[in-house]
């Protein structure tokens, strides 16, 4: 019998977890040839998520949970779930019921057809503000331009074969972008599409600042193209300097030189702006290097529990 693990990172989803787990069970009960194990990663929730999982695992031998000491972020929670998984395949999905459990049988079917990765992509993004939709579209266009990879409508809802999981967890980098790294591997893959349903438990947990940080990590983690902007700015600055310098020399020899230091001041401001912009880009990459060389743990487990197995 094949074994499939379902990894669910959660943060303050105590009100929806039971509904989600029951919905998944209804969809997979027809797949009698597959043994499903649930791995729920509690990413430092401050609601009743821990208490619910502790009680739920006592009554369900096929469910275990990992509780991190604090909120390390979704990428770290996914990494924890993948490292703790043991199944021949792993399905990663959100806990907010926006990743439809009814897609799981189709994912298993494609996996049985020797697809290493099955990606669930959004055909409709669901309810979003215009600003959030615009920012998301801008990020994906920029990511495609700089990293040369189209992630539009992709999601973290994926099925991964064991060899894909092993490849992912073996990567040495610490700042990860799960949605981008899986296609980067180049394993055989298939896509299925879904309409994103409305959240059943309030609004999104992602703030604009958090999404901005994730976008910066994703872009700098997959592309060094911004660094080349410094060279482009240097060329532009040189051309402008030659142009303005030529005009100044011409005015001097024709006796039309403008008195004062306006031209010099403008040049200083222009060059200084380019230098500051270039240093800012370098600073972003130095920040990434700084995080990598510290080699801090991606996550710290405070408590993990499954039926007959209790690690603290």
Question: Could you explain how this protein is built, in words?
Answer:
With 312 residues, the chain is an alpha/beta fold. The chain folds into two domains: 2-207 and 302-311, Alpha-Beta Complex (Spore Coat Polysaccharide Biosynthesis Protein SpsA, Chain A); 225-294. It has ten helices and nine strands. It has a nine-stranded mixed β-sheet with strand order 7-5-6-4-1-2-3-8-9, with helices on both faces. Helix 1 links the parallel strand 1 (2-10) and strand 2 (34-42). Helix 5 runs parallel beside helix 8 and helix 9 packs antiparallel against helix 10. It is elongated and about 90 Å long.
Question: Topology of this protein?
Answer:
Blueprint (H helix, E strand, L loop, with lengths): L1 E9 L6 H12 L5 E9 L6 H11 L3 E6 L5 H11 L4 E4 L11 H9 L4 E8 L5 H18 L10 E4 H8 L8 H8 L3 E7 L12 H15 L2 H29 L8 H33 L6 E6 L2 E3 L1
Parallel strand pairs: 1-2, 1-4, 2-3, 5-7
Antiparallel strand pairs: 3-8, 4-6, 5-6, 8-9
Helix pairs in contact: 5-8, 9-10
Write a brief structural summary.
The protein has 312 residues and is an alpha/beta fold. The chain is 49% helix and 18% strand.
In total, the number of domains comes to: 2
Counted by DSSP, the helix tally is 10
Span between termini: 30 Å
How much of the polypeptide forms β-strand, as a percent range? 15-25%
CATH structural class of the largest domain: Alpha Beta
| Cα gyration radius (Å) | 25 Å
- Walk across the major sheet and give the strand order: 7-5-6-4-1-2-3-8-9
Question: Low-confidence runs (pLDDT<50, min 5 residues)?
Answer: none
From the helix content, strand content and strand pairing, which structural class follows? alpha/beta
